Predict the 3D structure of the following.
Amino acid sequence: MSNRFLRWVDTWIEENITPGANSDIESHEVKAKRLSEKLFDEAAAANFTNFETEEERERVTPLVLAAVSDSRDFDIDAYHLKSQLARENEDGD
Protein backbone atom coordinates (compact mmCIF):
# COMPACT_ATOMS: atom_id res chain seq x y z
CA MET A 1 0.00 0.00 0.00
CA SER A 2 1.34 3.39 -1.00
CA ASN A 3 0.33 6.04 1.52
CA ARG A 4 2.19 8.69 -0.47
CA PHE A 5 0.09 7.88 -3.55
CA LEU A 6 -3.18 7.82 -1.58
CA ARG A 7 -2.40 11.26 -0.08
CA TRP A 8 -1.74 12.53 -3.60
CA VAL A 9 -5.05 11.00 -4.76
CA ASP A 10 -6.98 12.75 -1.96
CA THR A 11 -5.44 16.08 -2.94
CA TRP A 12 -6.13 15.43 -6.64
CA ILE A 13 -9.78 14.65 -5.95
CA GLU A 14 -10.20 17.81 -3.86
CA GLU A 15 -8.64 19.95 -6.59
CA ASN A 16 -10.33 18.34 -9.60
CA ILE A 17 -13.77 17.16 -8.51
CA THR A 18 -16.04 19.70 -6.90
CA PRO A 19 -19.05 18.33 -5.02
CA GLY A 20 -22.26 18.60 -6.97
CA ALA A 21 -20.47 19.58 -10.18
CA ASN A 22 -21.68 16.62 -12.20
CA SER A 23 -23.98 17.56 -15.02
CA ASP A 24 -26.84 15.38 -16.22
CA ILE A 25 -25.02 14.86 -19.51
CA GLU A 26 -22.96 11.91 -18.28
CA SER A 27 -23.71 9.39 -15.57
CA HIS A 28 -21.72 9.29 -12.36
CA GLU A 29 -20.09 6.02 -13.42
CA VAL A 30 -19.00 7.36 -16.81
CA LYS A 31 -17.61 10.55 -15.29
CA ALA A 32 -15.84 8.59 -12.54
CA LYS A 33 -14.23 6.28 -15.11
CA ARG A 34 -13.09 9.24 -17.23
CA LEU A 35 -11.68 11.10 -14.23
CA SER A 36 -10.03 7.96 -12.85
CA GLU A 37 -8.15 7.55 -16.10
CA LYS A 38 -7.15 11.22 -15.98
CA LEU A 39 -5.99 10.73 -12.37
CA PHE A 40 -3.81 7.76 -13.29
CA ASP A 41 -2.37 9.61 -16.30
CA GLU A 42 -1.45 12.53 -14.06
CA ALA A 43 -0.05 10.14 -11.45
CA ALA A 44 2.38 8.82 -14.05
CA ALA A 45 3.36 12.39 -14.90
CA ALA A 46 3.88 13.03 -11.17
CA ASN A 47 6.49 10.24 -11.12
CA PHE A 48 4.48 7.58 -9.36
CA THR A 49 5.53 4.12 -10.44
CA ASN A 50 3.22 1.78 -12.30
CA PHE A 51 3.48 -0.57 -9.32
CA GLU A 52 2.23 2.14 -6.93
CA THR A 53 -0.71 3.13 -9.09
CA GLU A 54 -1.84 -0.37 -10.06
CA GLU A 55 -1.59 -1.55 -6.47
CA GLU A 56 -4.04 1.18 -5.39
CA ARG A 57 -6.39 1.14 -8.42
CA GLU A 58 -9.05 -0.87 -6.57
CA ARG A 59 -9.02 1.60 -3.66
CA VAL A 60 -8.93 4.75 -5.78
CA THR A 61 -11.79 4.04 -8.19
CA PRO A 62 -14.49 4.03 -5.45
CA LEU A 63 -13.04 7.25 -4.02
CA VAL A 64 -13.43 8.97 -7.38
CA LEU A 65 -16.95 7.60 -7.82
CA ALA A 66 -17.94 8.84 -4.35
CA ALA A 67 -16.54 12.30 -5.10
CA VAL A 68 -18.37 12.48 -8.43
CA SER A 69 -21.63 11.26 -6.90
CA ASP A 70 -21.51 13.79 -4.05
CA SER A 71 -24.25 16.36 -4.55
CA ARG A 72 -24.23 18.04 -1.17
CA ASP A 73 -23.37 21.50 -2.47
CA PHE A 74 -26.21 23.95 -2.71
CA ASP A 75 -26.88 25.11 -6.27
CA ILE A 76 -27.84 28.77 -5.89
CA ASP A 77 -28.72 29.18 -9.56
CA ALA A 78 -31.18 26.28 -9.43
CA TYR A 79 -32.68 27.75 -6.26
CA HIS A 80 -33.20 31.15 -7.93
CA LEU A 81 -34.73 29.55 -10.99
CA LYS A 82 -37.11 27.41 -8.93
CA SER A 83 -38.07 30.45 -6.84
CA GLN A 84 -38.76 32.49 -9.95
CA LEU A 85 -40.89 29.72 -11.44
CA ALA A 86 -42.83 29.37 -8.19
CA ARG A 87 -43.54 33.13 -8.14
CA GLU A 88 -44.70 33.01 -11.75
CA ASN A 89 -47.02 30.10 -11.00
CA GLU A 90 -48.49 31.98 -8.02
CA ASP A 91 -49.15 35.05 -10.20
CA GLY A 92 -50.98 32.94 -12.73
CA ASP A 93 -48.54 33.79 -15.53
Residues 3-91 form one domain. DSSP finds four helices and no strands in the chain.
